[in-house]
Amino acid sequence: MSSSGKDEPSFLDKLQQRGDGRNVNPALGTLLGEGAQQRVTDLDGANPAHTVSSSIPSRSGVASADSPSYHGLPAIKQPVWIATIPTYLFVGGVAGAASLMGLVIDVLGEKELNPLARRCRQLGTVGDMLSAGLLIADLGRPERFLNMLRVFRPTSPMSIGSWVLALSGGLNTVGLVLGRSHGVLGAVGKVSGCSAALLGMPLAGYTAVLLNNTAVPLWQATRRTLPLFFMASATASAGSLLSLLPHTPREAGVLRPYRLAGKVAELAMGYAMEHDARRAPEVARPLDEGVSGTLWKASRACSVAGLLVDALPGRRRWKQVAADLLTTVGAVTARFAVFHGGKASARDPQATFRPQRRGHGAAEVVPGHAVASDGKPFSFPLPVVR
Fold first, then answer.
1. Which domain does 102 fall in, by range?
2. Which of 72, 52, 74, 76 is nearest to 62 (CA)?
3. CA distances (Å), origin 165, targets 201, 202, 207, 238
4. Checking CA distances to 52, which of 28, 150, 246, 370 falls within 20 to 30 Å?
5. CATH label of the domain that carries residue 127
6. pTM here?
7. Total structural domains in the chain?
8. How far is CA 20 from the centre of its chain?
């Protein structure tokens, strides 16, 4: 007891005092490294103080005993990505689809379409550069992107995607600069442009694979259809953006079937992706509720409207501009809906627990209920401990 008559806090109480959310006593330890300068702006949200619960943890904070969780807390952490990531998902997809279209036009061999092919390469190059900038903005420091290129790991979607983005941007730039040259330089430019175009669809779809390779319920549940949805949406968006630019009637005859095919495929794969998510109602809840639900419904409405307006007879310029803008807005909002929907599903513990207990998720990717390292076979669905 101090001279003032008040009890001084114990050493353990001092350690548990809420400071910056990390419970580190500067007199005993220091923080070093990249995360040392991070600050928690919302202490209550980052490190909530929970009261003592008198109920069973597996039956706390849920609607019924048939839906066990742990105090109703999330089982996994939500992604910490910022808004530059869904923007990157859109921009990178458009860049990849535009580069591939440039290659298709070159294969057709019509000189009249050479300006359109060059615009495709320009759109692909600009998209690659913007994608790298958006990714670096999320990483925080440029050298972190370079560190991702120090190794090449075929089993890592992050490693593969980093190399695809770096190679696509470099090859597109070389192809654009040397594309009109003659001799050896011209040949190098053409080979570079074709190589970049072959990386187009991997660039448009790898971002979805990267999302699917996480434990986030919504992203993991749509692992079969989300990459196809991203590639179809990228094709529709690239065709729409190229149609917004000035073009000749012959170029319009090439752009129209390209973008219409992309729009039809986008709607079909969007429905298939939603069907995969709805196998577990808890997983699909973010597509119906909250910010992500509003964005998803808006994206579907814009995509349908963009296809209908584009398919209507008539070739008036205002009609085409309206259809292309609707399609582009639908593609952008779809990326943000998937992004925010993943965060919402990570915050819902039931979106993690219930599909696993029904044999979804990891149980589906184990071929033939394989034998574990202890010699005992896996058994799914997982039993619920009462």
1. 84-350
2. 72
3. 11, 9, 10, 17
4. 28
5. 1.20.1630.10
6. 0.76
7. 1
8. 31
